[in-house]
Amino acid sequence: MFVDEIHRFNRSQQDSFLPVVEDGTVVLVGATTENPSFELNGALLSRAQVLVLRRLDDAALEILLARAEAHYGASLPSPATPAPVFAPWPMATGAICSTWRKELASLDAKTPLDSAGLVGAVQRRMPLYDKSREEHYNIISALHKSIRGSDPDAALYWLARMLAGGEQPLYIARRLVRAAVEDVGLADPQAVHQALAAKDVFDFLGAPEGELALAQCVLYLASAPKSNAVYIALGAARRAAQELAR
Prior knowledge:
Blueprint: E1 2-4, H1 11-15, H2 18-22, E2 29-31, H3 36-39, H4 42-46, H5 58-72, H6 94-105, H7 115-121, H8 134-148, H9 152-164, H10 169-184, H11 190-205, H12 211-223, H13 229-244
Parallel strand pairs: 1-2
Helix pairs in contact: 5-6, 8-9, 8-10, 9-12, 10-11, 10-12, 11-12
């Protein structure tokens, strides 16, 4: 039995698979784009073998394109010069490889396309961002770690990814306040005031103007010196308090 998007089954529905999987009535094959450790019941997951499928590399995508050309009986159109033909592949998945082939075939370009023109012609892949799923946490974690690692360019990029994906700006502002007290801390006590000011500015201006305040805060935090002394000290104090309370 093949079940696509198995993570969409709730806990009770997943449990219904257990008896027939255990007695061998069915061999269950589930597919999901989510992390199975988060989305599948532990009992079901313990009876399964997890296979991770990685994104196709350039060579595999070229093979898919060749198959698509053979299927349609036409080669890549002349408006695309050889060099940039596979320039957009870092943005591609196998599912849209054939679609791009058809888009390229319909181009009516008067001159050969360079890489930028080709990417523009086939449009861009929307940022992978799902506010209710694992990618949401991956990207906010990447933003936080970029700030912690004092990488302003990366931090600004991840902020832009979140905004482009439709994340709530005030959620981002809350995470920036956390980064200010957790990672910058006493190394720059003004950092938390910058983060709170960014929240207030966004509350006052709204989007898109208020997003500049979030960007300024991200760059400030990423460029600031770092100290997690308070975070570590409070953790140690809590452990001591728990031990003494026994």
